Amino acid sequence: MNKKAYFGDFGGQFIPETAMFAVEELENAYKKIAKSKEFKDELNYLLKEYVGRPTPLYHAKNLSKYYGHEIYLKREDLNHTGAHKINNALGQTLLAKKMGKKKVIAETGAGQHGVATATAAALLGLECDVYMGEVDAKRQELNKFRMKLLGANVVEIKDGLKTLKEATTAAIQAWVNEIESVFYVIGSVVGPYPYPTMVRDFQSIIGNETKAQLKEKGINADYIIACVGGGSNAMGIFSAFLDDKNINLIGVEAGGLGANTPYNAATLTNGKEGIIHGMKTIVLQDKFGRILPVHSISAGLDYPGVGPEHSNLFKTKRANYYAVTDDECINALKLLSQKEGIIPAIESAHALAYLEKLCPKLDKKSTIVVNVSGRGDKDMDTVMNYKKGRIYG
Ligand SMILES: *Cc1c(COP(=O)(O)O)cnc(C)c1O
């Protein structure tokens, strides 16, 4: 067993023999190229000048007053393309270019990772194919159009439920078929090693900046909260604080209609150990080990697995994970919009919704950092049509 491929009991490389060559090539390139000073300088330049980093760590005074605790927001919503996904898409696409690949491919659900990858490919002059389930492509027409406008080719997948799980399977197949010339850009801290490590490292800029910004402001955080789909924005911010046991790390999953109903995507709350997309992790599954369909109002959290490092943080109790429902998320989105004039992505609103549960039970005044992983512009249709007439009525 390749020890470094594991986080405790989770991770590994559960892939066909034909893909072994590609993950080994990637591991070597990641270690040699992505760790070099030249690569880091170039990536940091792009993150600063193109993406707009560092993102602020904003003291949300109105929300702090409302909850009676000091609340700071890490503003990943202010990145170019509107979310944290660009940090990773740019890192992997730059690595693909340095490896001499001609094309990047990506899977996408709602289209956010597809748009981020298409953006990076346009900037760096690589071809880009994005695999997307046919159902998702219909639901997210605007993002499909955006990717095409950016010069990417959108491949619609008609298998199974025609959503993210099938798109990922198709992207893995396409990668294996054209393994010499194609680089597979995975959108979260999932997949076979080295992806969960590499994606975490590209996203760790979120946590590193937060740590430096807290220090500069002269404050200590007691809690760090992030939403968890595959888990990349959460690992990105958690990674800088793993060794500081005074800081409580909280991941918030999509509880959908309720974590105790069949309609949720609360993997760590309800799942069991299993294998999905090349990794051993915790998976939502039935008693025969078949992967369950998932439900969440937020397409970005609608995934039946979770990154293996989160499974390990969950099992070792270094981080705690909770689920919030669609209703709670919409209320949190409305609250931040009206208290601070910041409309968060519905994914990020899950992390904000947990404040409602946490704040009343804290016995001393605490400092809480919430990672606002993205902006809500993409979600206005969903919010407008959610239980129509209710949230503004
Ligand atoms: C995709 C997405 C997520 C979920 O992905 P993670 O890998 O869990 O971070 C969260 N927030 C936003 C805004 C997203 O676009």
Automatic annotation (TrEMBL):
Record's keyword annotation contains Cell membrane: no
The cross-references to Pfam families, in alphabetical order and at most eight, read: PALP
Write down the required cofactor(s): pyridoxal 5'-phosphate
Q: Which residues form the Tryptophan synthase beta chain-like PALP domain?
A: 52-374
Supply one GO molecular-function term: tryptophan synthase activity
| Keyword flag Transferase | no
CC terms in the record's Gene Ontology section: cytoplasm
Q: Which reaction does it catalyse?
A: (1S,2R)-1-C-(indol-3-yl)glycerol 3-phosphate + L-serine = D-glyceraldehyde 3-phosphate + L-tryptophan + H2O
Pathway listed for it is:
Amino-acid biosynthesis; L-tryptophan biosynthesis; L-tryptophan from chorismate: step 5/5
Query: Where on the chain is N6-(pyridoxal phosphate)lysine found, per UniProt?
Result: 85
What keywords were assigned to this record? Amino-acid biosynthesis, Aromatic amino acid biosynthesis, Lyase, Pyridoxal phosphate, Tryptophan biosynthesis
EC number(s) given by UniProt: 4.2.1.20
Database matches in Gene3D superfamilies: 3.40.50.1100
Report the protein's function: The beta subunit is responsible for the synthesis of L-tryptophan from indole and L-serine.
Family, per entry: Belongs to the TrpB family.
Quaternary structure per UniProt?
A: Tetramer of two alpha and two beta chains.
Q: Name it.
A: Tryptophan synthase beta chain
Q: Which organism is it from?
A: Campylobacter ureolyticus ACS-301-V-Sch3b
Task: State the taxonomy lineage.
Answer: Bacteria, Pseudomonadati, Campylobacterota, Epsilonproteobacteria, Campylobacterales
